[in-house]
Design brief:
By secondary structure, the chain is of the alpha/beta class. The chain has 12 helices and 9 strands. It is globular, with a radius of gyration of 19 Å.
């Protein structure tokens, strides 16, 4: 039984919905190309970026900025990692780009973001929501709603869905997203991802709070629940999803997603078909 399960798990990993193209491209270039080839056209089916102001919350080292920035009239990037922001400035300058990049500590980044209230057409959260605590995530989504212009959009890309069975993003274990933190923190060392296990073991030496913080920052899933708390009727607000044909070359369809969609069709038929994918893009 164990050997059979191992074979099934290995096969599922090989066919997992991981993001992007394969080496020898650098990770920075790979992520830029994925954003440029798939997510820029997907977004521009909803809103043209030409002449628009884009604010990217969690811009990191600028790989996503390099894809979206050239299409926008004005590009603003914010991140709590000052070193990553400096890398972004250097790498983007090499491409002839000079976006407005802001590095701010976690205690100030929301207030720095709020300073752009009323100036933003596209509020972009690309692979960022899953690395926040619940309170941080809700605060950011609420702020995004306030900062973006009435005619603008809030865009979430590449956020793992906690309702799907496999945690391909962080632990590479099944069902870890569904576990409460207390149980996940007792179970994490069964993960096959060595660097994840090592990071949590190291933080455990500093106490339970440090251990919980490390689990959060490595990434936990998100689901429709947070969005519903902030935006209300999601069927009125969601304009695009990773079911859209333009994203299917990047977002392969998996039978677990089809099964989840059937459940949601019964349990929550009012939801748009955005919350059954492994990756939440909306």
């Amino acid at each position: 039984m164990s050997a059979a399960f191992d074979r099934i798990r290995a096969r599922l990993r090989r066919s997992s919905p991981r993001v992007g193209v394969t080496p020898p491209l650098s990770d920075w270039e790979r992520r830029r190309l994925v954003a440029e080839r798939h997510f820029v056209p997907w977004l521009e089916e909803v809103i043209s970026l030409s002449g628009r102001t884009v604010l990217e919350y969690g811009c990191g080292n600028g790989c996503v900025s390099a894809a979206f920035g050239p299409r926008a009239g004005r590009y603003i990037g914010l991140d709590i990692d000052a070193g990553a922001v400096e890398d972004a400035r250097r790498l983007l300058a090499q491409r002839g780009m000079e976006p407005e990049l802001v590095a701010a500590p976690s205690s100030r980044i929301l207030s720095e973001t709020a300073a752009f209230r009323g100036e933003v057409d596209v509020f972009l959260c690309y692979a960022v929501l899953e690395h926040m605590s619940l309170d941080e995530r809700l605060a950011l989504l609420e702020l995004a709603q306030q900062v973006v212009r009435p005619t603008g959009v809030v865009v979430v890309v590449e956020t793992p869905n906690r309702l799907t069975p496999w945690d391909y993003h962080t632990s590479q274990l099944p069902f870890l997203y569904q576990l409460p933190d207390e149980l996940a923190l007792r179970y994490f060392d069964r993960s096959p991802r060595t660097e994840f296990v090592d990071a949590l073991r190291a933080s455990a030496a500093n106490g339970d709070e440090a251990l919980r913080e490390t689990l959060t920052r490595w990434g936990r899933g998100v689901s429709y629940h947070e969005f519903e708390l902030i935006f209300g009727d999601l069927n009125r607000h969601v304009l695009a999803s990773s079911w859209d044909p333009v994203l299917l070359p990047e977002r392969n369809i998996y039978r677990e997603e089809l099964a989840l969609q059937r459940i949601l069709d019964t349990a929550r038929p009012d939801l748009p078909p955005s919350f059954s994918r492994y990756w939440l893009d909306l």
